[in-house]
């Protein structure tokens, strides 16, 4: 520990800790709420002469490492001593707290410790965010209510807000006055990139070193400290480097060191190299656990002395004592192995509101380099189908998909939290879209145009699972007349795609008799669509023609077909939605994924398959199915434009 005038700097106390809230965010006028921060917990202890000591939660001296914070608050204290509790954080380029960047800074500091003391790393500035005040002047505030401590903290002037500021806190009553709830505050925390929310009892005292019910944390991402007990060499693209880590923690009941799983994502290349170097110096011949892990879990394992502590994010801790869906966050130099305790399994453990971040990689897509993130994030929970697999699908299907998107304004349906989370339609080009993305303005809306692989990969990285397009194109920025006719066959209650196939056969006869060539595809949901390539100069003509045919079939077989949109008319019938031809409407694009329970696709099918369909499963295709079909059959819609014909009057 660096030398400081200990007689004048307030004595260190073990920090008060927040207790997990069990997944239930507390509400009521007795509570206040703060953002849960993603940095290093630290005490800022200031002597009357301005001498400042920064100390970790374990009384490790941080002062030299964060030298740019020393003395920052002294001008506001007028010769008074002070003790602030808070976190030291680093911000990324997006304005959000970036723990990984803090870890990189930390690694650089450790490597340069033998150099000049007080190295500041000015290219990665740090900030102290205070959330409690334990002493001001000669007054010890730990017995004062939270409300009073926060009031005194808020009254302190912040001489340099770039280096020190106060964490925002809001009471239940303040939220209610704004017609908002603690849930709204939590949602804002999620959208702003915070770790979660801490609910604090407004009447509570500060209890050093304890984890009482008066501070309750509601994390959006579960984190766990782990002991690195072994590693696996990488394979394929990671050959020659570290592939993953084998993790341990102490059993909360016995204190034994137990195996709790592994982690293989979340590492940058630099982190892999740095970790491998450290671990090779700690090698041992046998595993360090009290009991041998399952054989299948330790294939190719190389064991190390259990000295390094790290942190992971995870989705679940199983009854078998394993962390699942993990991602690495970095080493924790402020923690000792003896402090690391395994989590307890919680039956039916609720999923976090925000998925843990996965690896961030840079890829070459066509002639563009794109940064992809959260590749391990599960977007289809029923199948474990991740965002990385979504991007892989769209990359591999691009050759046959892109011609059906070319020059057509795109409407996205985005599922950032997966198909079980909130979704939204997005017609306008979203903020942060790359400058090279082609766009077109139609009816006061700036639509994206996806005409190449980089654009498609960019959209998939935004979790734009569904791609919808109109039945017309744009040329030189001008909307063109419709070039496709579409019939959307929607099965009502009591019917399925099998019934849609029977209606499609009848439509095929009528359309062919009118000189058109219909092509079929599944919707990827419950129904199907028929397309014809047409030529017309009248934007209203396709809807009028489709409506006439739909009404004709409904008159001929009213028990099985309806042309009326009202849901009350659909039971036991297939609705022929002719309105999809309206210039303002869009239809899911061929080969688009759908936001259903499983990663199903709107897949082109042959008329032989339509006529032979007798079971729903026969025309239900997942992403993998469609990739195989395209490899075997190519694009079943490839000949559509060549079969273009004038729209019948």
Task: Briefly summarize what is shown.
With 649 residues, this protein is α+β, with helices and mostly antiparallel strands. A hairpin with a 2-residue loop joins strand 6 and strand 7.
Q: Can you describe this structure?
A:
The protein is of the alpha+beta class. It contains eleven helices and 37 strands. The strands form ten sheets. Strands 30, 31, 32, 33, 34, 36 and 37 form a seven-stranded mixed β-sheet that branches. Helix 6 packs across helix 7 and helix 6 crosses helix 11. The N terminus is likely disordered.
Looking at this protein, list some descriptive labels.
649 residues; alpha+beta; OB fold (Dihydrolipoamide Acetyltransferase, E2P); DNA primase, PRIM domain; six-stranded mixed β-sheet; 37 strands; 20% helix; 28% strand; disordered N terminus; DNA ligase (ATP); DNA_ligase_ATP-dep_C; EC 6.5.1.1; MtLigD_Pol-like; ligase
Overall structural class, as computed from helix and strand content, comes to alpha+beta
Helix share, percent: 10-25%
- State the CATH topology of the largest domain: D-amino Acid Aminotransferase, Chain A, domain 1
Q: How many domains comprise the coordinates?
A: 4
Shape: elongated
- What is the level 1 CATH name of the largest domain? Alpha Beta
Low-confidence stretches: 1-6, 346-359
Structural Rg: 30 Å
Mean pLDDT: 88
Can you count the beta strands? 37
Which homologous superfamily in CATH is the superfamily of the largest domain? DNA ligase/mRNA capping enzyme
Number of helices: 11
What is the CATH-assigned architecture of the largest domain?
2-Layer Sandwich
Tell me the major beta sheet. 7 strands, mixed
How far apart the termini lie comes to 89 Å
How much of the sequence lies in strands comes to 25-35%
Enzyme class: ligase
Family: In the C-terminal section; belongs to the ATP-dependent DNA ligase family.
Protein name: DNA ligase (ATP)
Catalytic activity: ATP + (deoxyribonucleotide)n-3'-hydroxyl + 5'-phospho-(deoxyribonucleotide)m = (deoxyribonucleotide)n+m + AMP + diphosphate
């Amino acid at each position: 520990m660096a030398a400081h005038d200990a007689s004048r700097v307030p004595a260190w106390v073990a920090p008060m800790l927040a207790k997990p809230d069990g997944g239930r965010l507390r509400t009521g006028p007795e509570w206040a709420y703060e953002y849960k921060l993603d940095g290093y917990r630290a005490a800022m202890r200031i002597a009357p002469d301005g001498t400042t000591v920064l100390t970790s939660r374990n009384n490790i001296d941080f002062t030299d490492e964060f030298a740019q914070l020393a003395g920052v608050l002294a001008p506001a204290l007028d010769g008074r001593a002070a003790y602030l509790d808070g976190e030291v954080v680093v911000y990324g380029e997006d304005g959000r707290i970036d723990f990984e960047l803090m870890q990189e800074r930390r690694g650089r500091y450790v490597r340069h410790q033998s150099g000049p003391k007080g190295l500041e790393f000015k290219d990665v500035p740090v900030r102290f965010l205070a959330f409690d005040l334990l002493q001001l002047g000669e007054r010890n505030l730990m017995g004062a209510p939270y409300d009073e401590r926060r009031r005194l903290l808020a009254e302190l002037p912040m001489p340099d807000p770039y280096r020190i500021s106060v964490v925002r806190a809001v009471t239940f009553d303040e939220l209610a006055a704004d017609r908002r709830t603690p849930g709204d505050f939590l949602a804002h925390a999620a959208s702003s990139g915070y770790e979660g929310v801490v609910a604090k009892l407004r009447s509570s005292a500060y209890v050093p070193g304890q984890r009482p019910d008066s501070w309750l944390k509601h994390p959006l991402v579960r984190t766990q400290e782990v002991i690195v007990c072994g590693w696996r060499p990488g394979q394929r693209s990671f050959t020659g480097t570290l592939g993953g880590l084998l993790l341990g923690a102490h059993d909360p009941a016995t204190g034994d060191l137990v195996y709790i799983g592994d982690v293989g994502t979340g590492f940058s290349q630099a982190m892999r190299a740095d970790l491998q170097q450290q671990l090779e110096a700690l090698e041992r011949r046998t595993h360090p656990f009290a009991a041998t892990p399952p054989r299948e879990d330790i294939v190719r394992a190389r064991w190390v002395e259990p000295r390094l502590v790290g942190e992971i994010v995870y989705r679940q801790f199983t009854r078998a004592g394993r962390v699942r869906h993990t991602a690495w966050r970095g080493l924790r130099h402020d923690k000792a192995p003896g402090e690391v305790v395994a989590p307890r399994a919680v039956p039916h453990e609720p999923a976090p509101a925000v998925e843990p971040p996965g690896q961030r990689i840079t890829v070459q897509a066509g002639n563009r380099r794109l940064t992809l993130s959260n590749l391990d994030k599960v977007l289809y929970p029923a199948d474990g189908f991740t965002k990385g697999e979504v991007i892989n699908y769209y990359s591999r299907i691009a050759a046959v998909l892109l011609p059906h998107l070319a020059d057509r304004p795109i409407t996205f349906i985005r599922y950032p939290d997966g198909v079980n989370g909130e979704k939204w339609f997005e017609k306008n080009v979203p903020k942060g879209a790359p400058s090279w993305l082609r766009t077109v303005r139609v009816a006061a809306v700036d639509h994206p145009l996806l005409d190449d692989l980089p654009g498609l990969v960019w959209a998939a990285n935004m979790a734009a699972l569904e791609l919808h397009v109109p039945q017309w194109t744009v040329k030189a920025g001008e909307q063109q007349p419709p070039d496709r006719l579409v019939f959307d066959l929607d099965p009502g209650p009591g019917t399925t795609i099998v019934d849609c196939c029977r209606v499609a056969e009848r439509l095929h006869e009528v359309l062919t008799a009118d000189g058109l060539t219909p092509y079929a595809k599944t919707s990827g949901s419950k129904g199907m669509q028929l397309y014809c390539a047409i030529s017309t100069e009248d934007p209203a003509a396709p809807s009028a023609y489709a409506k006439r045919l739909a009404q004709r079939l409904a008159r001929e077989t009213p028990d099985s077909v309806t042309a009326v949109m009202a849901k009350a008319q659909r039971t036991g019938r297939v609705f022929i939605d002719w309105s999809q031809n309206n210039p303002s409407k869009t239809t899911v694009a061929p080969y688009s994924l759908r936001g259903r329970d499983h990663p199903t696709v709107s897949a082109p099918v042959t008329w032989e398959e339509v006529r032979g369909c007798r079971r729903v499963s026969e025309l239900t295709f997942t992403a993998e199915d469609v990739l195989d079909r395209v490899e075997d059959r190519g694009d079943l819609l490839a000949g559509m434009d060549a079969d273009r014909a004038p729209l019948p009057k």
